[in-house]
Write a structure and sequence with these properties.
This protein is 34% helix and 25% strand. By secondary structure, it is α/β, with parallel strands linked by helices. It has two domains: 334 residues, Metallo-dependent phosphatases (Purple Acid Phosphatase, chain A, domain 2, 4-Layer Sandwich); 241 residues, Alpha-Beta Complex (5'-nucleotidase,  domain 2), CATH 3.90.780. The strands form nine sheets. It has a six-stranded mixed sheet. Strands 8-9-11-14-16-15 form a six-stranded mixed sheet, with helices on one face. A five-stranded mixed sheet has the order 25-21-28-24-29, with helices on both faces. A hairpin with a 4-residue loop joins β2 and β3.
């Protein structure tokens, strides 16, 4: 018996060794480098057409950065984008609406970058079907949106996911968009589309991907913030964290939309690790993830190690620029310089004719202001900056009342010649102008919510006037607790905001601006931008209390073009525009507010 056992062992030993080496011993590692951009907002070059100055970031600097990595990683370098490419800079606007026959510059630039795929963003949808359909068709890579559904067919309007292979590793990339679109944008922008819940959609497509594709790695590229934002019974704005935790199967999720740079290491419902990471906007920071995959002899992934960071993209350093200028002054070819700098220059030079066209367009003089105006004044009372918008909205629509908010945090227009580019300081994104029917009570309730987002309840003269958040470091809020573009003031009515009172009791409306009585029970014609009129920021839904399903019936009129266009036409017609305060509202009590304004102004604007 003992001999029989020994014979059997001698026979099995080679097989044991064979299977042990086959399944247990890894053969090699594959190191992938994943670069993800999001919320570039038309920042293609190292030049800000709004501020008329050179800046860091932009696709040209990212191109230089990735070209340097390409030398080391080759096809193991993977570049994806998370949407919001088509609004924010004249680079996009010009090819969205002015020159619609040439190839779209944003598509051309992204093709030059070598993107593998991208996701659609809400600001891409906001440009309207003709624009984003043309841009998508011109991109040489798929634009993903698994939860964007064609209502006629019930199938995805965009490609839901994309499969790539790198050194034997099969990767599935799933794209998703925040489902808030119908609650923010006019229906003509997204007609024929439905936007599904992100958790439900990703769960459905994860099952399809696993069954049909059997990938080694699943990556999500989402145009939705990490968590929170606006949460209603109808939609969850920023659902990335929720998807990562509730839908098993993702290894890496790159997100955007909230413009907040962060890296999170989470566990899904089955205990698997998910790396969740997002960059900022304008190409100032990117997602850079390292994926080290261990494969056995049969090519199966037996181990995954993923780390990520969000580095700043500085682009051309001062010493690089100095070297370039010296070489150029001598008449030499700057392409002989080191790789990152020459890549940046080559990228920008590739589009030199488009850049020249853009500069001529944005530098066109359209008129002038009689005095400088500052958006920062809008936080502390009636201001020339916002009242210029109010007056234009009232004049365009013939409405009784106008609602408007600071759409940038600290824009400034000088008394010098105004140019096309200055209009983007007033309106960074395109908005149509609605005339809506609202009751006096709805208007008051909307303002109560607005100033509740805006102001602190002061207990005495030493308190802050504004609702500040100086600890979180949230770059998008600039020291405020809430987003400034949801801080609506009104014109056409005379009212005070008593900051010693709690929200709900602050607004006292004395009369219409012409002195006639104001009634809570009367219907008024109200001028609002399309973002607000469609429920953006929830001021007309949660604040005024108008059900979202009723909003379409409240819209009495809508402009054909965006607000920026009408303001530009007004300046051209008047030649010299004289901004003035309407003084339709103010903060009280006066003895508390005056000192608080000075303190808070110094805190916010140094």
């Amino acid at each position: 018996m003992k001999r029989l056992i020994l014979v059997a062992m001698s026979f099995l030993s080679p097989l044991t060794s064979f299977f042990s080496s086959l399944y247990a011993n890894p053969t090699h590692e594959v190191h992938l480098k994943w670069i993800h951009t999001s919320d570039v907002h038309g920042s293609l070059f190292q030049y800000d057409y709004l501020k008329k100055r050179n800046v860091n970031g932009g696709l040209s600097a990212i191109y230089a950065y990735t070209q340097n990595l390409l030398q080391e990683y080759g096809e193991r370098l993977i570049l994806t984008d998370g949407g919001d490419c088509l609004q924010g800079q004249p680079t996009a606007y010009y090819y969205n609406f002015i020159d619609t026959q040439s190839p779209h510059l944003v598509a051309e630039a992204m093709n030059q970058m070598g993107y593998v795929c991208g996701a659609i963003g809400n600001h891409d949808i906001e440009t309207g079907h003709p624009v984003y359909d043309r841009w998508i068709a011109q991109c040489k890579f798929p634009i993903l949106g698994a939860n964007v559904v064609d209502m006629k067919t019930g199938k995805p309007y965009l490609q839901p996911y994309h499969i790539i292979k790198r050194e034997g590793v099969k990767i599935a990339i799933l794209g998703l968009l925040t489902p808030a679109i119908p609650y923010w944008l006019p229906e003509q922008m997204w007609s024929g589309l439905r936007f599904e819940d992100m958790v439900a959609s990703s769960r459905k497509w994860m099952e399809i991907i696993k069954k049909k594709e059997k990938p080694d790695l699943v990556v999500g590229i989402f145009h939705s913030g990490y968590d929170g934002g606006i949460v209603t019974p109808e939609y969850y704005e920023n659902a990335t964290k929720m998807v990562a935790e509730q839908v098993s199967g993702f290894d890496l999720i790159c997100y955007g939309h909230d413009h907040l740079a962060a890296t999170h290491y989470l566990k899904n419902r089955e205990g698997g690790e998910v790396v969740v990471v997002g960059p900022t906007s304008q190409g100032k920071r990117i997602v850079e993830a390292d994926l080290v995959l261990t494969l056995d002899k049969r090519g199966r992934v037996v181990k995954k190690q993923i780390t990520a960071e969000v580095p700043f993209i500085r682009g051309e350093r001062r010493e690089d620029r100095r070297e370039r200028n010296e070489i150029a002054d001598e008449g030499a070819d700057v392409s002989s310089l080191h790789s990152p700098l020459s890549s940046l220059l080559n990228f920008e030079n590739t589009f030199s004719s488009q850049r020249d066209t853009l500069k001529k367009w944005v530098d066109q003089p359209i008129g002038r202001l009689s005095k400088p105006i500052y958006e920062r004044d809008a936080f502390f009372g009636s201001s020339e900056f916002i009242d210029l918008i109010h007056q234009m909205q009232l004049d365009l629509t013939g409405a009784d009342i106008s609602l408007a908010a600071p759409l940038s945090f600290d824009a400034y227009l000088s008394a010098d010649t105004l140019r096309v580019s200055d209009m983007f300081a007033l309106y960074k994104y395109e908005n149509l102008l609605y005339t809506m029917r609202m009751t006096g009570r709805e208007i008051k309730n909307l303002l109560e919510m607005s100033y509740g987002l805006w102001t602190n309840q002061m207990k005495g003269p030493d308190d802050h006037l504004l609702l500040l958040d100086l600890e979180s470091g949230n770059e998008r809020r600039n020291g405020l607790k809430n987003l400034s573009f949801n801080m609506d003031s009104a014109a056409g009515i005379l009212y005070t905001v008593d900051v010693s009172k709690p929200e709900g009791e602050r607004i006292v409306i004395q009369s219409m601006a012409d002195g006639t009585p104001f009634s809570l029970d009367r219907d008024y014609r109200v001028a609002v931008n399309s973002y607000r009129g469609n429920g953006g920021g929830e001021l007309v839904t949660r604040g005024a209390g108008i059900p979202h399903a009723e909003l379409a019936n409240r819209i009495m009129d809508c402009t054909e073009k965006d607000l920026r266009y009408y303001l530009m036409q007004r300046i051209i017609a008047e030649k010299v525009l004289t901004p003035r305060k309407l003084n339709h509202w103010r903060f009280v009590p006066d003895e508390w507010v005056k000192a608080a304004i000075e303190r808070d102004r110094k805190i916010l604007f140094k």
